[in-house]
Amino acid sequence: MHRLLQDALSGAIDKEAQLRLVYRGIYLDNPVPYDDARTIASAQGVDLERLWGKGGFVEKRGANVRVLGPQRRGTVERVETMVDAMHRACGLWSQGKSTEIIKLLGETGYGQRGAFWQFCQAVAESLINGSKEKQLLEGLLMGKEGYIRESAEVVPKGKDEDAPEQLRRLE
């Protein structure tokens, strides 16, 4: 993980994102025995069971576990982690919804966080050339500067309840 992040902002990457990087760095897209996945999750300080089921980015089938990419996960309804934000942004990018990406990144604050962009870049670099997830991330990252600039205009949710005008401007 530190090699992928080049140690610059690894402390600013949330635990779930760290789990995602370590798992996919070791196992790629392959399912692994639950105990192996739990060991990696525990080392990152993550409760693995909390991440599977409806809306999660971990899939459990029988005795195996797999970390999902955005194309396998489907629509992300709630953004609680960097992985959620990355997957949601990739889904929106694949649909050509740049205004919604800007709104998502502005409301969550991730658009202005260098650690988020470094995480997305590290994930893209860890993937096999030609994979759908890599294509989605590279497409999202191509628009990074515009998303950073435009998301700065959006008031993060819960930060300023008296400024709905700025949010309406993007809807």
Short description:
The protein folds into two domains: 2-70, no CATH class; 73-170. Helix content is 56%, strand content 6%. It has helices at 2-5, 15-27, 34-44, 70-73, 82-94, 98-108, 114-126, 132-142, 144-151, 164-170; strands at 32-33, 58-61, 64-67.
Explain what the structure shows:
- By secondary structure, the chain is mainly alpha-helical.
- The chain folds into two domains: 2-70, no CATH class; 73-170.
- 56% of the residues lie in helices and 6% in strands.
- The chain has ten helices and three strands; from the N terminus they run H-H-E-H-E-E-H-H-H-H-H-H-H.
- Strands 1-3-2 form a three-stranded antiparallel β-sheet.
- A hairpin with a 2-residue loop joins strand 2 (58-61) and strand 3.
- The longest helix is centred in the N-terminal third of the chain and has 13 residues, at 15-27.
- The radius of gyration is 16 Å and the shape is globular.
- Mean pLDDT is 85; it is low at 160-171.
Features:
single chain, 171 residues, mainly alpha, 3-stranded antiparallel β-sheet, 3 strands, 56% helix, globular, disordered C terminus
What topology emerges from the helices and strands here?
Blueprint: H1 2-5, H2 15-27, E1 32-33, H3 34-44, E2 58-61, E3 64-67, H4 70-73, H5 82-94, H6 98-108, H7 114-126, H8 132-142, H9 144-151, H10 164-170
Antiparallel strand pairs: 1-3, 2-3
Helix pairs in contact: 2-3, 2-7, 5-6, 5-8, 6-9, 7-8
